[in-house]
What does this fold into?
Amino acid sequence: MTVIRYVLSRILFAGFAALVGAFFALPMLWLTLAPFNARGTLAVEIPRPFTLDNFQAVFANTFAVRALGNSLILAGGTMLVVTLAATLAAYALSRAEVPYYDLLTYGLILFSSVVTGTAAMVPIFLLANALGLVDTYVGVIMAFTGGLLPTAIFILRDFVEGLPRSYEESAMVCGASPWRMVWDVVMPLLRPGMMVVGIWAFVQVWGAFLIPFVLLRSPERMPAAIAIYSFYTEAGTPILTLTSAYALLYALPVLALYLFVNARYGFRFFGGIKR
Amino acid sequence: MVPRRPILSLPIGLLFLLPALFFVAVFLVFPSLWVLWISLTNQALTGEAALRPQFVGLANFRYLFDPENWAVRGYFGNALRNSVLFVVGSGLIGQAGLGLAIAWAFHRRRGLLREVLYTLVILAWIIPDVVVAFMWVAYLDRDQGTLNALLSALGLGRVDWLIERPLLSVIIFNTWRGTAFSMLLFSSALAMLPPSYLEAAAVAGARPYQAFRDIILPSIRSHIVTDLILITLWTFNTFTPYLITGGGPTFRSEVVSIYTFRVAFQHFEFGRGAAVAVVMMLINLTLALAYLSTLRREARAR
It folds into this structure.
């Protein structure tokens, strides 16, 4: 009886694992094969003939290459501003006696979950319009920064809380100014936390579609998330050879960062890290 | 014990907080308050209503909740209904249910199979939006798509998923897209359970499903509540279905986020779009307050 039950449970488990694996893997197959196929196709088939010409064609397209650069500017810019501002804020929240501390943290969490990109697209567009920031990198970076900062601050605050105070106390005894102390003592110790927050912010902006779609106008400023919709024929059908190759190129940095984070820190995750 | 002196003085602390507070105030707090005012005007992008928007009272909200065309396709009620189905189907049943099932099946198992499956689920979660959108448009294609190729190989008919079953398509897509969060959350919750709980149940002769129902579920209840609230919040606010169906055909997969976008950025009726945004933020506020109160209750219980 128990043997039968054991065998049944093994079969059930194997069946479940196979179904879950198929459900998650099957939609991804197309992206692993189509970019190397000389014929554009939506089907999953062995590339015949196998080719790297699609990538060459993408690299020959200045608009497409510039769009990857634009994504880099937007994601990198947001990453820098978010990481610096969040580090300073998290440090202040942890090491100074900020009045209304509870109210401040409560309000930050509340606003960041209530005001999402989709709920705020109308006022953010009108605000950018009023400030003359429509169709600028700065406008997109600032809009992302406002949305990402609360979560970034909370992730970093946990890292700051984990630092022993003795280093900072000795730095103070030696007469270091607060700024020097943060720059020379705290930031080097906080590097893992800043790395996590920086990578997180980068990936969020790199993959985002809606905010740049709403805030940017000129083709030469479009990030890759929007430029990918430009590989269309005159008749309006996508050129699948180029689209698939471009999609793979555009996804690669995220995959590389995932591998890096996984190898370096293990893929831990923090409460609301992905929105 | 000597009271610990804060390392930063208050003025320096506030100075350090200033950059972050600036961005949050200007690009998060201000827009959320300003949108309340915009929703009471006839703000547009061009023409007279762009320069001097007029106060129109609750007209925009009356339009949204007008009982005459409330549930007609292309109107707000239809979008709200689609959003509810989308959240319940892809968030609560799909992501949370599947995430819990995977976490439970692989609880206390290690090895290659687990690594591979977890990596696949996480990959589906982290690949950029437009890339997964293209993958799914290819996957669900009527003639060449992988899903239909499999179905017809099994002797089942082909379905034109994005035309015939658009809402179901984006529900399945979003389950695939977001299960990782629930899976990871429940995995870490299960990993924290003392093994003795389950051993005691096994000694007492409990079947696996009995152990699951009577021991696992009650022990990770607070994680489940947290997960369900966050998933509801995120699923309600996601815009990605737009990249797969565009909300169509004939608004059959138009969820509230897509409706906002269409009203504001395709018809340029910002007042009306702002009214939808206000309704969205009220729903978000309810969910966020529920989340924060469970967090507090947990903190107090600890």
